[in-house]
Amino acid sequence: MKFRYAMVCSSNQNRSMESHSLLKKHGFDVSSYGTGAHVKLPGPSLREPNVYEFGTPYKQMFDDLRRKDPELYKRNGILPMLKRNLSVKLAPQRWQDNALDGSFDIVFAFEEKVFDMVIEDLHNREQVLMKSVLVINLEVKDNHEEAAIGARLTLDLCQELEKVESWEESIDDVVAAFEKQHRRKLLYSISFY
Predict the structure, then answer these.
(1) Could you say which of 16, 25, 101, 150 would form a disulfide bridge with 7 (CB–CB 3.0 to 4.6 Å)?
(2) CB-based contacts of 35, cutoff 8 Å, min separation 6
(3) Is the pTM of this model over 0.85?
(4) Which residues touch 113 (CB under 8 Å, ≥6 apart)?
């Protein structure tokens, strides 16, 4: 593979991890992150989410929720999601705190607010390498079914990007072909490390 990829959503749980897992299975050099202040998972009601710090191991969250209400968290898909996550990496990582992970060639965000936060973070960093990075937003609803669809679309787009000589020269054509084929709009921006 030519490029290093980062998958980014709010909590590094569902959308970014579904894509991270699928791309990893297909041999891509991929990492994943969240941009939120905390990791939030659904709780017994909208007003009672389960909140964790970034860096809390997925296994610890899994055990915590299994202890609290195993039926609820199995039924709403949170326990299977956490089980998948812990097979991919140890814990959710925050995008803004992981600047030293190296530079990525292509970063995927799965909602516009996250896309904006990634762009803002890249613009606020010292751009010492002057290496370009492509940031793409593929809007994906934060539920298990849409995350699976979003991951397949992301894989498809990454496979197309791998075919080009240089994404800088081909991005407009690749995006136009993707949008026509999948009837999904993409936002993208170029930033620098």
Answers:
(1) 16
(2) 8, 9, 10, 94, 95, 96, 114, 117, 118, 121
(3) yes
(4) 10
Per-residue three-class SS string for 110-163:
CCHHHHHHHHHHHHHCCCCCCCEEEEEEECCCCCHHHHHHHHHHHHHHHHHHHH
Same domain for 104 and 168, yes or no, is yes
Q: In the prediction, which pLDDT does 101 show?
A: 65
pLDDT at 141 > cutoff 80 = yes
| Same domain, residue pair 28 and 62 | no
pLDDT in tens, 25-46: 999 999 999 999 999 999 999 9
* Parent domain of 64: 39-88
52, 67, 88 - which closes a domain = 88
**Max intra-chain CA distance, the chain:** 52
